[in-house]
Amino acid sequence: MKNSLPRLARTILFLAAAVALVAPAAAPATAQDWAKALLDKSPRHQEWVKVKYGTRTVDAFVVYPEVSHKAPVVLLIHEIFGLSDWARSMADDIAAMGYIVIAPDLLSGFGPNGGGTSAFPDQQSIIKAVSSLDPGTLTADLNATADYALKFPSASGKLAVIGFCWGGGQSFRFATQRKNLSAAFVFYGPPPPDDSLKTIAAPVYGFYAGNDARISSTVPDTKTAMAAAGKKYDPVIYDGAGHGFMRAGEDPTNTNPASTTARLQALKRLEALLKTM
């Protein structure tokens, strides 16, 4: 039966099948079907809300924990890839630990036709747009989103911030801006300028990759500067892990076992630290 096709036709079919097999691995980070599948299986309540302040509206994704008591709020700041399926899946992971998680789409209104992350045509355009965001607008967006979530009837009044990659740097910067934070969690993001560290009121916990010298090389000087400012800074560097290990560590196409190990260890550490708030 298989030899009834001409050789050329069989070759074409073989190549088509090969392309189909490798296509998922070559898909851009914005096409995270595996993350969306995890999110769709979650038993927790998820919803989109519109955070309005002044003339601006920020779309935000909210996940509620399945608990019988009021819960702290965790403000999640997405990667440079915008509010992706993975970022929303990460919000669900944290909600599973017992926290209300709100993740603003910081590209809200800045995309084509006034859209957000999903309105951009490709990953590079998202990266460019996120890189161009105004710091003042970012701070205002984050404050408005945090204030919105803290008013939920099921919110306990405590607030933490967590960010990844570009968002990791923003979570560290937000700690210099927000006085009522209980904790700031920085995942492989750069620190703010040393002269701004004196305004930090919350402990800052860092999570860094060993194979990410661009970011991990900043840790020693940041430790020195935070100590000089009298602030708590507790960084951990995960040997062998690559930048973005929280996402890469659960990506089915990941080829670095150290990133998977780092993700699992970081999740355990994060859960333990959240309980200390």
Euclidean distance between termini CA atoms: 67 Å
- Beta-strand content: 15-25%
Strand-and-helix sequence, N→C? Answer: HHEEEHEHHEHEEHHEHH
H/I helix tally: 10
Annotation, overall tally of beta strands: 8
Please state the structural category: alpha/beta
CA-atom Rg in angstroms:
21 Å
Enumerate the spans where pLDDT stays under 50 for 5 or more consecutive residues. Answer: 1-30
Morphology: globular
Question: What order do the strands of the largest sheet run in, or round the barrel if closed?
Answer: 1-2-4-3-5-6-7-8
- The average pLDDT score comes to 91
Helix content: 25-40%
| Largest beta-sheet characterization | 8 strands, mixed
Describe what is shown at a glance.
With 277 residues, this protein is an alpha/beta fold. The chain has helices spanning 7-26, 33-40, 85-95, 123-131, 135-150, 166-175, 213-216, 219-228, 245-248, 257-274, and strands at residues 46-53, 56-63, 71-77, 100-104, 155-164, 183-187, 204-211, 233-242.
Write the layout of secondary structure elements.
Elements: H1 7-26, H2 33-40, E1 46-53, E2 56-63, E3 71-77, H3 85-95, E4 100-104, H4 123-131, H5 135-150, E5 155-164, H6 166-175, E6 183-187, E7 204-211, H7 213-216, H8 219-228, E8 233-242, H9 245-248, H10 257-274
